[in-house]
Amino acid sequence: MLPVSGDLLPDLGEQLSATTAALDLHGHLIVLVPAALGAAGRRRLHTIRAILESDRIALVETDLPPLAVALLALQLRRLTGTDLGPGVVAGAARLLTYYLYAGAVLGSVTRLDRVEVDLKSHLRSWVPGAQFAVMANPEAGLAEVGPHTRVAGPNFLTHLAVAAHGMHDDWVREDLARQWQPGQVHEVPLPAASTQWWGNHKLVEFAAYIPDIGVLYRLVTSVRRESCAWCGLEVIGDQCLFCSAQIALNEIGLIG
Ligand SMILES: [Zn+2]
Predict the structure, then answer these.
(1) Distance from Cα 215 to the centre of ligand 1, integer Å
(2) What is the whole-number distance in angstroms between the Cα of residue 250 and the centre of ligand 1?
(3) Distance 247 CA to ligand 1 centre (A)
(4) 3-state secondary structure 128-144
(5) What is the pLDDT of residue 162?
(6) pLDDT at res. 110
(7) DSSP E strand stretches across 138-178
(8) How far is ligand 1, taken at its centre, from the CA of residue 240, in Å?
């Protein structure tokens, strides 16, 4: 992934040579672009892609919160070690997003603008000690944390990643883990972008993800593959994420 977060952008020349070297080494690059990335960082990515005139760089937009973005990147990296081509792995970024259960425990929702919050919760967040479980993916949701708080979770086998920062993670590790039944719970560091994304300096970010590469592979290969008519890559989904061409539905596929 290219380091383009924040206001201070790295030197363009250095980024161009690093990108060229990565393309020479790997052939193709898949870049996950968080929706929260600022305009300057986004412009920089498109500049690099344009200067290199490269349809071997896929810029894949994602709405996921930071911890889930990191986990998705790991899942995609593992898929690149299989026999799947770059067009299919890029398309897998969209597919696998639906299998990530991502949220956070927050002490306040007044500065949370990435997940819709109702007014009552806004008012409650001024009560000292109140905590909120906020889900961002696959569906947005919010509940005040209490002994009977229930959060809809995955109905398939996952591991749970937990990143606590300035706040106890008891509720996630005990109550939520009891509800979601993850195979394992992993403590991980909080991503740098998380405090801004969630609008809180203290938080516990969590995400349940499929840890098994065999399961991920089967999910991706269960989707119909097509050849991009423009660049020839094998892809899944309705668009080639490398050259942006729309994928026409195969007529035989429509009939069958
Ligand atoms: Zn293409």
Answers:
(1) 26
(2) 15
(3) 8
(4) CCCCEEEEEECCCEEEE
(5) 98
(6) 87
(7) 141-144, 159-165
(8) 5
Residues with CB under 5 A from ligand 1 (ion): 228, 230-231, 240, 243, 245
Token pair recorded at residue 18: 């690093």
User: What's residue 1's pLDDT?
Assistant: 42
Tell me how far apart the alpha carbons of residues 109 and 27 are, in angstroms, rounded to a whole number. Answer: 43
Domain boundaries, the chain: 1-62, 101-209, 224-256
Running along the chain, 256 residues long, what does each successive block of 10 average in pLDDT? 59 95 95 93 94 92 97 98 97 97 94 83 79 95 90 97 96 96 97 96 98 98 95 94 86 44
Q: What is the CATH number of domain 101-209?
A: 3.30.1180
Say how many Å lie between the CA of residue 105 and the centre of ligand 1.
40
- Quick one: which of 152, 210, 209 has its CA closest to 179? 152
The CA 35 to ligand 1 mean position distance, Å, reads: 23
Long-range contacts at 148-155 (CB < 8 A, ≥ 24 apart): 149/175, 150/179, 151/103, 151/176, 151/179, 151/180, 153/101, 153/179, 153/180, 153/208, 154/99, 154/101, 154/180, 154/208
Query: Distance, CA 233 to ligand 1 centroid (Å)?
Result: 6
Q: Which pTM value belongs to this model?
A: 0.91
CA of 36 to the centre of ligand 1 (A): 26
Ligand 1 centroid, distance to 249 Cα (angstroms) = 14
